Every structure is written in C-alpha cells, then in structure tokens.
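Work Package 3 (structural annotation) set out to generate three-dimensional models for the target panel prioritized at the project kickoff. During this period the team completed the workflow that converts sequence records into discrete structure tokens, so that structures can be stored uniformly alongside our sequence database. As a representative example, we reproduce one entry of 234 residues exactly as it appears in the project archive.
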Amino acid sequence: MNCTLTIVRYPKYLGFAGFVSMALFRLPLMFNKKISFWKLLGCGKNGTFDIHPDWLQWGVLTASGISENYKPQTTNYKPLYNSWYKFFRCEVWTVIIEPIEGHGTWDGREVFGTLPKQTDYEGLIAVLTRATIRINKLKSFWKNVDGVASKMNNTPGFITSIGIGEVPWIKQATFSIWQSKESMKQFAYKMQEHAAVIRKTKQQNWYSEDMFVRFKPIASFGTLRGINPLEGKL
C-alpha cells in the first residue's frame, strides 16, 4: 500500500476556497475505486497539534493498493485536483509514503492495513500521530501539548511537521518527518516534556481513539512555504 498526503496553501484572502474544497472533493474521492481510504483535512498554524487553525492551509490524505515498486516521476506526477489548485494559484506539496509499522485505528479501522509494531527499518521516516480527544478532556489536552510542540523544531534529526485534523480541536493529528527512527525516538521518548505528556495520555484517558503509524517516504513533489522539505534527501 502507498499513501499520498497533499498539503495545499492558498494565497491570502483565498482561504475560503479551502472551505469549499472540503465539500466539493468528497464525491470524487468517495467514488474513486483506486482509493481505499481518504480524509480531507484542515491544518494547524505551528506544524503540530495546534488550537489555532490555519485557514489558508488544507490537506488531502489518500491510501491505495499501489505496488511497492511504484516509483512516481516528477515529469508525470500531478496531485489530485491539480486544475483547482492552479486556478486558485495555490502552493502545493505532495509526499508519497509507504506505511511500514504502527498500531491503532482511524474511524474504527486499520486503514493502512495490519502493520507490525516494529521493523528493522532505520532510514528516513515519516510519522503520523492521530487522536480523537474526549470532549471532557479537551481543556487538559490543550493545556499540556503546547509546550511539547514548541520544542520539536529544535530537535536533532527533525526535518518538518504539519498539524492536520478532521475536526478543529477534537480530531487532531501531527505528520512529521525525521532523518532516522532513532532521532524520532529521541524526541518521542527521551525528551522529558513529551514523555510526561505520553504518561498523562494514558493516566487521564484523553483519547477515545488513537493511531500511531510510521512510513517510509518514497517521493516528494512541489513546495510548502517555498521549500520542498525532502529535496535531496530521497
């Protein structure tokens, strides 16, 4: 299985088109038989779980059963809804990723297939951390995550991250990319503030559903804020 995450940034004053796309894109995705799973997503402002939405930035996540040997070329790759993005003069970045390990569910399903919790893969790695936050735990959750999010950018081995979500404040996810699994683990498990949040997640039962999946990046196209985060790294 391969997955595609496309992040779209609209020009100033055209963010309304992102709202409109969340309605218009549903039917084509729903009836596309090549796609086994899809989500239309909003984005947070600071690259991770963020209580403040970024109304200019939106995302499309899809999964399909493309062969493991699929190697898209920059000369023929076009993101979904390419004409729409061109019309609104959007900046578009797409990363194609292969799920390799993880656990948890999304809408009650293992949407990326049944994955091992660990593999021996040690290369460049992308991570999706996703959760549905219980309504009665929202205040506690948002009180604790801001301090952790602010430290991620300065972690050795960190490349980039994007805050995405289906429902503002409630259904949230962070997609991040790291130089290696070890650098990701240094942040996730050995940074004191993040480790404390992980403990509170379990102790206080913040989530009604959660998912943690690691991916192997395969290809990267376009730019986000003028940069292709994976240029020269694949």
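The beta strands are 2-9, 35-44, 53-64, 91-104, 125-133, 158-167, 171-178, 207-222.
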